[in-house]
Amino acid sequence: MLLSNKRALVTGASRGIGAAIARTLAAEGADVAITYEKSAELAAGVVREIEALGRRGTAIQADSADATAVRASVEKAVAFLGGIDILVNNAGIFHMGPVKDAALADIDAILNVNVRAPVIASQAAILHLGQGGRIIHIGSWFAEQVQWPGLSIYAMSKSALASFTKGLARELGPEGITVNLVQPGAIDTDMNPAAGPLSELIRQPIAVGKYGSGEDIAHAVAFLASAKAQYITGTALTVDGGMLA
Ligand code: NDP
């Protein structure tokens, strides 16, 4: 197993990519705390799946838009797990529409959840991470190419994670902590359903011709979280079925 007895916190893991990451880290031997905003029952289901894999799990309600709640969620995870080795900043929200029409509340929500929360969670986790620690952000292929109009604000929020990843990797490298970014392509979740109204358009540029699954992202995260990835830091791994090829 890649992650025997490691302790991980995955944000936004009641469903979708985060839930797949939580299950996969547990299957690789980690105890896993997750956060969610609204889906308490789904989050409890993910915890049961972690436990069924023989690992400890807990679900923490924490709105990523709330800085105090984000900080507290890291402390609660550390208390439950007895420390932390891996932080996965996965929680994110999508926004689509022309910049001229974007409401201030929507701009604030995107920046707070997609950018500020990963910074705050990292800041809180750094106090507890030791040698071999891992921070992994979940970005988006839109940070590399904004293929269609209406994605400016969301894409900006994800490209912010790329430079944050590089800077933080330099800060934490001397302490033996790596920081990386995984950039999913089109992954079949509630956010981007493979049978949704835009899915035919989205599928066209994908080299392998189909959507990916949460597990496709989760396996990349598990590898980057493992000791095998000790020399990989400050970089982005795009997992997109060749969308950008
Ligand atoms: P989903 O919308 O399917 O799931 C989002 C998850 O994040 C849920 O568990 C949700 O919790 C949680 N979440 C949302 N907002 C908050 C919040 N304010 N506070 C705490 N938790 C929150 O998204 P995906 O699984 O598709 O996306 C996961 C990540 O991957 C995001 O960062 C997204 O931007 C990124 N991504 C996704 C792609 C895709 O094609 N699906 C492509 C590229 C990037 P709850 O259930 O409680 O609402």
Automatic annotation (TrEMBL):
Similarity comment: family membership: Belongs to the short-chain dehydrogenases/reductases (SDR) family.
Source species: Acidovorax soli
High-level lineage: Bacteria, Pseudomonadati, Pseudomonadota, Betaproteobacteria, Burkholderiales
GO molecular function annotations of the record: oxidoreductase activity
Protein name per the record: NAD(P)-dependent dehydrogenase (Short-subunit alcohol dehydrogenase family)
Protein's UniProt keywords contain Cell membrane: no
Record-linked CDD domains: SDR_c (cd05233)
Record Gene3D superfamilies: NAD(P)-binding Rossmann-like Domain
Keywords, in A-Z order: Oxidoreductase
